[in-house]
Amino acid sequence: MRRKICLLLSLLLCLLLFGCAKEPAPEAKQPSVVVGFSQLGAESSWRIANTESMEKASKEAGFGLMMENANQKQEKQIDAIRSFIAYQVDVIVFSPIVENGWDNVLNEAKKAGIPVILMDRMIETPDESLYASYVGADFYAEGKKAGEYLIRKADALGVDHLNIAEICGTKDSTPMRDRKAGFMDAIAGDSRFTVIASVDGDFLRSKGEECALDLLNRFGKDGIDVIYSHNDSMTLGVLDILEQKGIQPGKDILLITVDGEKEAVDALKNGKINCVVQCTPKLGPAAMALVKSLTSGQKVSKVTHPEEGVFTDFDDLTDPSVEGF
Ligand code: GYE
Questions:
Q1: Closest ligand 1 atom to 41 CA
Q2: For the chain, which end, N or C, has fewer CB atoms within 10 Å of the first or last residue's CB respectively?
Q3: Mean pLDDT of all residues in the chain?
């Protein structure tokens, strides 16, 4: 009897032990492709939407994403790229804060056999083999659209003179250089326009505010007819200052901006901004499609520009297609 009880107990113990034992955890599946992504910062709503787009698209593609945010420092981006090379990622994607100074680190990536995709901004280099592909806006075309809008507006208002102040994005970055060049080329030779100042706002809302205060101090409300700024964050900073000073944005001073974030498009609908040139931050799917092609040995095009439009106070702003990101 005793033996029987002992047997029964050991059986129960066995059942308890093995019945309750957890199944061995399956080994975490490693993604087949790992992308090293160096984001330049978090300076604007555009940038935040761009980061989200990259994260979402990499997840959907089933790729691993190693992301480093450089907080607006080129050295940090260079460090991040070096760490991706050491980790032997499959592809490096990065958004270069400025155009120059990348050749050394990109040569290191090239030697390691890791293809590089430039996302959002370009670099200046004599050696185009340092990057496989660029995906991002045509910033020159954006600047031109801004200038063409102003010509149309001046025609509609019938004015013979307008003083323009320009607030620029990050010095030596592609969008800063090309949005300026496109705009200036569009209005060149039209004697109605005088650019009274070009100031640096670094794509930041807080700097947009500072620039507006500085411009108002120097030229007064009546000395400025138009403010063209290279992104919405800076424009929204300007708008806040104008309202604080009792100046009507969109009427007393015309505002022209680039990006198309929701707050700016809403301000356009409310008559406080006159023209919003679109620049999409949703570059993730196109960047991941390039990663896919590169890792499966397919040829990729050197440059891809997304389709972009412009919203202005000449448009029917109740149209549902007029919306920000
Ligand atoms: O316009 C601005 C951001 O490089 C296109 O950077 C991007 C620009 C964008 O900070 O808002």
A1: 10
A2: N
A3: 93
